[in-house]
Request: fold
Amino acid sequence: MIDRRLLDFDFILFFTTIILCMVGIIFIKSAASALEIDYAKKQLLYFSIGLVGLIIAVTFNYSKIAKHTILIYTLSVLLLIMVLLIGKGIGGAKRWISFGIVSFQPSELFKITSILMVAYYLDKIGKRVSKSKILVYVFLIVAFPILLIIIQPDLGTALSLIFVIFIVVFVSEGSIRNMLIVIGTSLASSPFLWKFLKAYQKKRLLVFINPDVDPLGAGYAIIQSKIAVGAGGLFGLGWKRGYQTHLNFIPELHTDFIFSTVAEEWGFIGACVLLLLYAILFWRMFSLAALVRDKLGLLVIVGIISLFAAHIFINIGMAIGIMPITGLTLPFLSYGGSSLVANMFLVGLVLNIGMRRFKI
Reply:
């Protein structure tokens, strides 16, 4: 007899994730072809590790994983502290811990932890306190680690996590009052946040409004990325034939601006195919969320959907000039071991919840 959980395994979600990863490796190969390091080969290795992580995430009952959330949360915060003490600095940011030839980004682990921790709290403890106190307690849970991420500095990740946590709390409590409090507080704190930004972060926000303010400096990447996207036309210039890509006009092409390569080489049609793949990913996750019977599983899936949506919207928005440069990667496509492994683990959690939605 076939195990019921296997029958409930969402193969569409699984294979869509695999296809997105393969597309990412193909375009990393193109975007980094002029560089000395074979980033595509390294991404293939990270994909293999991520696949193992996905299988691990699927194997164990998610409710049992959630019971160890406090331990995982503590480990995540300790790693974020270690980054500031002994972390590896790249491009003015200290976000990595190096273990020999391998570098690990703890903020990627905290993306997983924050979703699990807030979902677990709202499911097990949140019901015992009034709605007015929910935001206070959630703030106490995430404020310190998010501050550590801002200090690295990694403002993009910090803002995306705030958005994710807000969505999870709103879905859990359905409080319009809490939503207005969060929005009002965010707007009121914006002037104070400006004072803590690094000089290059302020420049990025200014050139977002007008890239021509510094066309050869902070605005350069946005201008060149928009040229690449426009040059792709309807059908694209062909794989490894993008001028902006292979003349290295765009910095961080295999990470932050991988979408520019897709648009230049695949054109508008190819970009739409990529967006269709993401749409299928979200369709399957929303479908599983609609079937989940317990609050914990629902909130975890909502958090994962929100995280992917924030990254996709902001990253593609950077490439076409409607969002400021934040350094957020495009899920499953951008080069990066920590990001890819974390994202595949998150998909594994969604599959896990979907397989056990009828039996907690």
